[in-house]
Amino acid sequence: MGATGSLALTEAEHQWLKAHPVIRVAPDPGFAPFEWFDSDDSYHGMAADYLFLIEKKLNIQFEIEQFDDWVQALKAARSHKVDMLPALARTPQREKHFLFTEPHITVRGVIVTSKGYKNIQELRGKRIVVVNDYVWDDWITYNGHDVDLYRVENNLQGMELVALGVVDAMVIDFASVTYLLRENGFTNLRVVQNKGIEHDLELSFAIRNDWPELHSILAKTLSSLTAAEKKTIQTRWLQLEGYGFWRNPVFWYSLLGALAILFLLLGVITFWNRLLRKLVEQRTQELQAANLKLMQAEKMESIGRLAAGIAHEVKNPLAIIQMGADYLSQEVEIDEVNGTVLKDIEDAVQRADSVIHGLLDFSRDKKLSLVADNINQIIENSLKLVNHELRQSQIEVKTLLDKSLPELQLDANKLQQVFINIFMNAAHAIGHDGQLVVKSLTRTLSQEDLVRDRENVFKVGDQILWVEILDNGPGIIPADIDKIFDPFYTTKSVGQGTGLGLSVSRNIINLHHGSIDIRNRPEGGASVSMMFKLASGDKK
Amino acid sequence: MKKRILVVDDEPAITRMVKLNLERTKKYEVRTENQGSKAIEAARDFEPHLIFLDVMMPDMSGCDVAAELKKDPTLCNIKLVFMTAIVTKDETESMGSNIGGNEFLAKPVKTDELIATIERVLVV
User: Fold this and answer.
1) 3-state SS class at A107
2) Cystine design at A517: which of A300, A334, A382, A452 (Cβ 3.0–4.6 Å)?
């Protein structure tokens, strides 16, 4: 009997419980949410929860008897066919038949209407419905309210009459309204909020009047219930206050607010996702670019090692030639021809030296020595240097240089190396009898131009300085186009080229933050394009 | 009195060209040596005012030759000018043309530069 320990039942009461193992209970079969039977004949509701709690505390079991309606249940209790009722409002008349505990359920009385009544006074002379024999019936009758009273069998019927407009209002308890509104989805009913009925529905256990022992036991048990236990039952069945929650603007505002926040959150998440995806793409590209750079760097390193070896092997012979020419220039008679020969030798040594120089530069990624310079000047100087070769091959040179080009920060020596390289390549490709066209201009980059930006350094709309070198040779074998800038890639026969020219050129253009591209022209021959960024304001 | 110049380089054509170009000025007496390992002996024998020293030589590097010279009190005051094929002119400039307190020339070097270097180094 541990559960009853805190109840402090008397020995006589314990004995009484033992002597009465069967206590019959008759709930109202349709008094939701206080008590009712569902379609499976299971007993539910607040009163039911109190009964279950008492069963647990007293370690007993009630025998629940189901009657067809409330009137029958009440009749059975009066005639002691059952021993108690779990939820009965106390009235002087009922006290003749039952012993009442203190109310375990207290609910506000309210008026439900489908019209705009504000308080009970406005209902004077109106049609009011109550459930027959419920406490509200007695309340209206005893208080002498001047209304046209209708009586129905249960709360649901009454609510339906109000909803249909057959009557003007119903007097009912707040819990039942809440429950019925929720279960039946009446949309046009509202609870008169301001001034309801100054009367509460108080439900107690009603025990047959010849069993005072049971009354005493139940009274003790009820008073032993903790506030938390009562609260649990209360909140389980009476969660809602005031209007039906869907009628409360606060509910809708809250819902809208919550939805807005949800959408905002979704938006933020979507945005964030996209941002992340973009970021991942960008990082992937950066990684790929870094990877390429790394591969390039590895290539450069091996070229660097090779270059040092080549430099030693080539620079010694160059030194011999240089000093040999120096000696001869002092010893032989310098006429026009001898002078030219010696000058050519000296130039050749310088050029060879600068190629080696360039090779070392290329592999060491040296910085440029930038000076404001006109690229046309560099192009013309370069053409002069290869003039002899071009003339020998009977290649006609046509220059279309924009005289108004702005000056750019350029390394003239390195760019000269680039141009010489490209002119010589073109001459080699043409062989004999051909044409070389060199153009320089400024332009605004179009989408079409962008395909020639091999390094992806420009975007549509950029102002650039554009140099293009066109030849009418056989063009490049398509399979070679992708490899053309690779170090040591060459189509020339052994001894004719190192295969470094274009990779050095590309490196130099890249150091200028520019882009170089080579491709075949539709009309035949090859086209080399170089793009350099114009500083804002450089546009002519 | 002519200045004595010793030229040490494993490439005979180089030593020959240097000798030809310097001697035709009548201002220098030039001896050449094509093995690094024989440079010390040549220096003792010839007592040069200045030695042109190739850096990369198969039997003994120019740096090792320089170190030997510095050890010998009778040779340690001879001026040294390194000549190398590896370092570019830009790099020699960036090093201040001076490694271990010595002048440094990058091949291919012009005769004018050789003479200018000799004159500069021997004045100091």
Assistant:
1) strand
2) A452
